[in-house]
Amino acid sequence: MAAPAEAGSARIRTATDADGLWRRQAVLSRVIYWGLHASCLLALWTGVSAADLALCATLFLLRMFAITAGYHRYFAHRTYKTSRAFQFVLAVLGCTAVQKGPLWWAAGHRRHHQFSDQPGDMHSPKQGFWYAHQGWIFDGRWDDTEIGRVPDLARYPELLWLNRWHVVPAALLAVLCFVIGGWSGLIWGFSISTVALLHVTYSINSLAHVWGTRRYATRDTSRNNALLALLTMGEGWHNNHHHYQASTRQGFFWWEVDLTYYLLRGLAALRLVWALREPPAHVLLGASPPVRSESA
């Protein structure tokens, strides 16, 4: 087993330190975001091949895994352990998903759990579908990394660097897609794959609190949704997750497909990760019959 991640020497206290010059690039962020969406239309010019589709699907799945296994279950919730080297790999892959850096993502998600569906939640559907889905990312209140929420991550200088320069891995991936497949490889492998990834990820914020069933009476409106779980590699078991956030496994029962958890079990067999946390028996025994949401 590799040595576990150990803290570096960096001591970070402010958003300026965590975000660097990027925190003043709100206009550029919007240009990149909507530019990615617009660039998908170029598929009408490039056409598509089987290789393009394979590249698109592969990068979608790889980066979805990086978000759910890396940014979410590891960085935000620390539900398992890994080495410092593999921690960095997860962070780099997460940056390629164009969802900003690992410290920003984890801090925002910890905020979401603290204030879920209450004032202070970054993306509650109570503020409307558009805001919960993507409007919140243009709200200046959430631009800075809340460094006080992630002191455990801010001690690693390499993670801090990635948080400042999260655009670098994404840009390098775009170049790689062009090298592999030319213009069609760039559009399908990067643009279309990234836009699909963004909206599937955002669907947990906008839909998994209004559409599905509630097994647990959590203080928020989180719901389990099998379709969203399939699309997001396990994140759709959202009510389970809000009930017990410390579990690596979000599909608590055998019929709740959680592809991310299965892949993490495979990585555990290879000793790349370890100490995967399961929901304890008392959590599972506390289940009650699911309640169908009114909007389902």
Question: How would you describe this structure to a colleague?
Answer:
It is a single chain. The protein contains 14 helices and 4 strands. The chain has 296 residues and is an all-alpha fold. The protein has one domain. The strands form 2 sheets. The chain has a two-stranded antiparallel sheet. A two-stranded antiparallel ribbon has the order 2-4. Helix 4 crosses helix 6. It is globular and about 55 Å long. The termini are far apart.
Task: Give the topology.
Layout: H1 15-19, H2 26-39, H3 43-46, H4 50-76, E1 81-82, H5 84-95, H6 102-114, H7 129-133, H8 151-154, H9 157-164, H10 167-206, E2 213-214, H11 226-231, H12 238-243, H13 259-269, E3 273-274, H14 281-285, E4 291-292
Helix pairs in contact: 4-5, 4-6, 4-10, 5-9
Quick overview:
The chain is mainly α and 296 residues long.
